[in-house]
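anyone seen this seq b4? input:
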Amino acid sequence: MRKIRQAVVIAVAAWLLTSAPALAIWPTTCVEANDAFEYAAGRLHNVGIYERVYPDPVVAEAACQNDHGDDLRRSFAWAFRDERPQPPAAPTNLRGHPDWSRVRDVAQARSTDSILSPQIADSVIQRGAVDAFLRGVDDGVQYGRWTCDQSWRSMACPLAPEQPGGRSPPPATAGGPQVNATLRPAWEVLRRSHAGSRLTGLPGNEAVVEIDWAADLPGTALAGWAPNVGLIGVAPGLRGERAEVLAAVIAHEFWHAVSPIPDESGFDNCVADEVRAFIAQAAVWQEISPGSLRSPLEQAQQRLVDLWLSDPGDEGRSVPEDVSGYPGLRAHALYDYDYVTTCAA
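predicted toks r here
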């Protein structure tokens, strides 16, 4: 703990010495000290995180103190005066509230941010704004206002009206498929890439009329293609992933939707089409990979690219009809994803 307190002191001191004159003041609140530490540590995206999540400064300070108050008081005891009025401390049982998990899940569905969503849930529960947040009319937190009055029920809008008669394909639009708002960044990354634009521009792309989260995927599938309703469904467990890796996953399913190669029955043909989908996925990831790999899924995408490039394949690296030159990808499909069982069914 002593080392942690020393690190905080050093970080704040460095911030004071390197900040612009307008910022060169000693932090006197938890929020200011947290911003100073994040700035000194080079995590500029975290500077102002409490203010963004909690627009009310009193609530922001209370949340910060609930998270970091004890450490800050130990390090800067002289800066906290007993006679100075303090914001009320955030209740410690917020996460035991029966609606906390539901609010957090909705926040994550709207933002795909696994760090912000618990903090948003804390604020919503503390302010008693559960109903307003779920309806998408809460101005008190980031992602609190959502277009739920213009959409059908989903993870992001659990109180919106349910589609009559269950899921049906939405009408196709001239601009492409209807894409869930939280998946649109991934769709735009895919569409703007060279490999992705070639894929999404293939004849028959109008077959894909919707890209959305889908909770009913089989087993541990990352995504799936449902031709009967024109849906590419992505597993909800991927909500915390970056847009680039989601784009690669969507590319795999997009190949299944628009493949110009005849869809013939039989075990070998089933495996071959998975190999082709993995080639499309690898080509997209190779182009759009953000570099540093943050998650196991991103690492898996890179291993897929390595397999693709190590296979003899063809020189053009296009998606071929004959996949005999890709023994590594074939083994990947058969054994890593158990298409031995799937294609035998």
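Strands lie at 178-179, 210-213, 223-226, 231-234. The radius of gyration is 25 Å. kinda curious what u guys think
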